[in-house]
Amino acid sequence: MSVRALAAKVLNQVVEQGQSLSQALPPAQQDLSPKDKALLQLFCYGVLRTLPRLDFFCRSLMKKPLTGKQRVMHFLILVGFYQLLYTRIPSHAAVGETVNGTKALKKPALKGMVNGVLRSFLREQESLIAQADKQDALVYCHPSWLVKRLQAAYGTDLAAQIMNENNQQAPMWLRVNALHHNRDQYQALLSATELPSFVAQDAENSNALRLEKATDVYKLPGFEQGWVSVQDGAAQLAAHYLDTQAGELILDACAAPGGKTVHALELQPAIKEMVAVDADQKRLVRVQENLNRLQLSATVIHGDASQPDSWWSGELFDRILCDAPCSATGVIRRHPDIRWLRRDSDIAELVALQKRILNALWDKLKPGGILLYATCSVLPDENELQIKSFLQNRSDASLIALSSQYNSQAHGRQLLPNEDGMDGFYYAKLQKAL
Ligand SMILES: C[S@@+](CC[C@H](N)C(=O)[O-])C[C@H]1O[C@@H](n2cnc3c(N)ncnc32)[C@H](O)[C@@H]1O
């Protein structure tokens, strides 16, 4: 199967059928060589990062849009544009291979049309690019509802910077398993394998290393033995901020796939019990896989965090991590499909769900206990406004400092994409009155 044709199919599934890239891409990559796998990923990610711009070029060059069963050919053309604009693939090869994709997609009759559109693009690209550069939507490549929300929250310049970061490729971060090595020791192992890395800026983030260049996990020293895991630097802050202590009963309420559950256990294996709950049974399988690889244990429960009475054992928790379901607008650079799959109306629904979860979990926290609220969102409604409203409604809740070095937060800490190379994230640490 042609990689270009596979990319067109995956993009059609995501953009037209609303599937997530993490659902649609892995099955398409299954029988490919590592090189083709990487190429397919590059095309899918690249087209999703630049979708409205490439759509505009297509609209400008075609009399009628491709619809119905021919719609997949629209995405084949976009894959062609993407190669011509953003890769080093020579244009004759990019055009030739893309045109060949028509055969694999069983539309050989459209070969001439695809060839014609790509060749017209090569002739007219300069003027088309100049036209696109005059339109914000085609420069930022974000849906207008999200542009508006970001501009309202951060102002035009910072919003533009956030969107620009969202369009970059995210670095690969590693979490060194504190049960096996300290970060310096593992960094030395990486250097010996010729995998240069940088330490995180935040002193708190003491297990985090950012690789200079992404690599296959199996090339990482001791990956299979659990010496190291892949996890963004911002996500790693959760376990440090949670700061679990020996003997405590801990709840990770929205746990799957379990990155923060296992990090908390790596930092403090002598806890009484870690309860990992998630509403998605399939994703819970990954929690167990993570626990197995790292030889850690937790009580894994399929349950709804907004209705704890259906799964709660009856003992109040010392600490709760609430890594709430959210818009994921802080991780768009890792999931370029998010901006096209989310709708403006989702935000209010998510805010309401987060509120229900927060309130329900609060009742299961011991007096004096700690709840760490986290999202990978950059939208204030899900973050500081959510926490502000919680504090107004709960007289037994107070906001406490996330760490000694990060003390000045108004309503939690909002990280923006690419701060120290990390994802966009939000944290607020709450304590229940005694
Ligand atoms: C941001 S992800 C969690 C990531 C995870 N903490 C980690 O670090 O690997 C949010 C999770 O919330 C789960 N979720 C959504 N609604 C939920 C609910 N009502 N109760 C429990 N989990 C829920 C989703 O299935 C998803 O796995």
Task: Give the gist of this structure.
By secondary structure, the protein is α/β, with parallel strands linked by helices. It has 3 domains: 3-140, NusB-like (N-utilizing Substance Protein B Homolog, Chain A, Orthogonal Bundle), CATH 1.10.940; 173-230, Sun protein, domain 3 (Alpha-Beta Plaits), CATH 3.30.70; 233-432, Rossmann fold, CATH 3.40.50.150. The protein is built from 16 helices and 12 strands.
Topology:
Elements: H1 3-15, H2 21-29, H3 34-49, H4 51-61, H5 71-86, H6 91-104, H7 111-132, H8 136-140, H9 144-166, E1 173-176, H10 183-192, E2 197-199, E3 208-211, E4 228-230, H11 233-242, E5 249-252, H12 259-267, E6 273-278, H13 281-294, E7 299-302, E8 317-323, H14 338-341, H15 344-362, E9 365-375, H16 384-393, E10 397-400, E11 413-415, E12 425-432
Parallel strand pairs: 5-6, 5-8, 6-7, 8-9
Antiparallel strand pairs: 1-3, 1-4, 2-3, 9-12, 10-12, 11-12
Helix pairs in contact: 1-2, 1-3, 1-5, 1-6, 3-5, 4-5, 4-7, 5-6, 5-7, 6-7, 11-12
This protein binds S-adenosylmethionine.
S-adenosylmethionine binds at residues 235, 254-260, 277-280, 283, 304-306, 323, 325, 357, 376.
